[in-house]
Amino acid sequence: MLAKLSQPVCPIAHQRSARGGDDSSASRSPRSFVAAALCGNESPMGGEPLVSIMMPCFDAERTLPMALASLRAQTYENWEALVVDDGSEDRTWEILGDFGDPRLRLERFDRNRGRGAARQRCLEMAEGALLSFLDADDWLFPNKLALQVSLMEQHPEVVVLSAACVITNARGEPVGLTRTGLRVGEDFATARFAHPGPPPLSFPPSIVRMAEAKGAGFDPEFRRSQDSDFLIRVMLGKRYAVSSIPVYAYSQAEAANLGKTLEGYRYRLRCYSRYRKEFPLHSRSAMAKTLARMGVYKVAGWLRSEQRLIERRWEPITPEAKDAYASAYAGVAGVADGKAVS
Predict the structure, then answer these.
(1) Termini Cα distance of the chain
(2) How many C-beta atoms surround the C-beta of residue 44 within 10 A?
């Protein structure tokens, strides 16, 4: 079983205490199912629902083969991938065309329009019942879709299900885990997202019911934080769930920097401002906290210590998560080596 993450504030637990515990529920995943998922085995269910996977790409020729291989390595085979090349100037479009899988549906922008526009176009192309995500510099664990489809079918009240990401460095080594908000001893929990603010889950490993995703949409003008803006609209007033099992390899350790962080916060301010009428207190509180974080990051930048703040976003990697990552990497890398996608 995956060791649980320890953190001073648990978003899910905080929501439980604020509502007297009547609006949340938690359950332990069956040990056999968790163990099977960590080993990359097939999920014990059929593959009926079509899962749409959105993948915006921009100048991704170096990392794209591994991302594509992780699609082909999925134990759950009923998926489609909506891939938008956001005006790349390298071999991204050529690599996509050579992949040779009919489940890949491609579109190319004539210029770089930003991730918000690319994600929205992927969403418009999607035909599945569930929506998953994959960035071109990341990759999925082979059991990702099988596990999450099973959990979504077991919990029809949940509109968004998230999980843990393994954070990797430039050499592809696992260096951390994203915070799940789960308490020590929990494998799985659900809660209601009651008011606007930072989503209490990670976007990349999430899976979303398509009806809610289509209803929310991505803001094409948001070059950053379009994921948080999207999740708030999808989740507001509804239930979400989080699993402790890592299902996604995320290259944040090398991609994050001070400039991108501050730009993301500026877009978050725009997002929160939309809720000033309906949620005046919560929106102003979220904006004030965002401005305070921006100030902290700016000071850290002057002191040349911003990377320490960025690294505090994730937890130390656990031995169990390292083992899960190694197993998943071996499976995906084997597919990449066996298929000429680069």
Answers:
(1) 36
(2) 11
Domain boundaries defined on the chain: 11-254+314-338, 259-309
Which pLDDT belongs to residue 135?
A: 95
* Averaged pLDDT in 10-residue chunks for the chain of 342 residues: 30 33 42 41 58 96 96 96 96 94 95 94 97 96 97 97 93 90 88 92 96 95 88 96 96 69 84 90 89 82 68 81 96 82 39
Task: Give the CATH number of domain 11-254+314-338.
Answer: 3.90.550.10
Predicted TM-score (pTM) of this structure: 0.82
Which pLDDT score is estimated for 184?
Answer: 81
Q: Report pLDDT for 311.
A: 64
Q: How far is CA 59 from CA 76, 93, 111, in A?
A: 28, 9, 12
